[in-house]
Specification:
With 252 residues, the protein is of the alpha/beta class. The chain folds into two domains: 28 residues; 197 residues, Alpha-Beta Barrel (TIM Barrel), CATH 3.20.20. The strands form two sheets. Strands 1, 2, 3, 6, 7 and 8 form a six-stranded parallel β-sheet that branches.
Length: 252
């Protein structure tokens, strides 16, 4: 029988790797159900902003729009009735083709942010392609609304280190979310509501959509607003949220 011997140094390295793997697995079990995408973040030195560290009971309600003109007016009316201001991440082509509706979002006091130009994942793109995508949307929004956004949510929330660094070089901050309502899956109104309310915590950014492909957002939104307020929270725009606590995009 052939025996294999491992040095003490090798055994220590092996033990540390097993410990690290155990920590990652435990993090996945404990954190993923809260809607926090930390396992993805572990693979990167840089990441978007998901939330801020604060004890104040505030959350930021955000909406992505890339398609259609039917859902957005419904969402705007609910927000107006409930006196809630939100942050809207708008794609460049949508702003150009729905200039009046985009202008209404701005006129209602909501924050205008970018959702890029082409709705494609950024991580496979070259740096030049990322720049072209970001700046094409930037120019569309600026030329249509006379607003220069400084916040961007990449399509599908996709990113890698080069994406985050390139975005920062262009004067933007990348913003994702801590709470995904899953309204984009049309899973049922109660499911959308429960997804948000069960994951509320101070400083969280909530992801919802006002594109026409999302059929249930308007039905779920009033209850989400009502119950979030009943839990003692107030709604703020993302830019205000970022002033309330640490939110660095670099992992320390």
């Amino acid at each position: 029988m052939k025996l294999f011997y491992l040095s003490m140094a090798t055994l220590k390295k092996l033990a540390w790797r097993i410990l690290l793997l155990t920590v990652i697995i435990i993090a996945a079990i404990l954190l993923i159900p809260r809607g926090i995408r930390y396992i993805e973040v572990i693979a990167h030195r840089y990441h978007p902003i998901y939330a801020v560290e604060t004890e104040e009971k505030v959350v930021a309600l955000t909406f992505d729009i890339s398609w259609g003109n039917a859902m957005a007016p419904k969402v705007l009316q609910i927000l107006k009735d409930q006196q809630v201001t939100a942050t809207f991440f708008l794609s460049g082509p949508w702003v150009e083709t729905h200039a009046e509706l985009a202008g209404q979002i701005l006129a209602d006091g909501h924050e205008i942010a970018s959702h890029g130009h082409r709705h494609v994942n950024f991580s496979p793109l070259s740096k030049d392609q990322i720049i072209d995508n970001v700046m094409s949307a930037h120019n569309s929004i600026k030329n249509t609304l006379n607003v220069e956004p400084s916040l961007i949510r990449t399509p599908n929330g996709d990113f890698d280190d080069e994406t985050i660094l390139t975005i920062k070089e262009l004067g933007y901050l990348a913003v994702d979310w801590m709470i995904d309502s899953l309204d984009w899956k049309n899973p049922g109104v109660d499911t959308i509501i429960n997804r948000v309310l069960k994951r509320l915590q101070p400083g969280a950014i909530i992801l919802m959509h006002a594109s026409d492909s999302c059929k249930m957002t308007d039905a779920a939104l009033p209850t989400i607003i009502k119950e979030t307020r009943a839990a003692g929270y107030r709604f703020v725009k993302v830019s205000e949220l970022l002033t309330l606590g640490p939110n660095d995009t670099k992992i320390r």
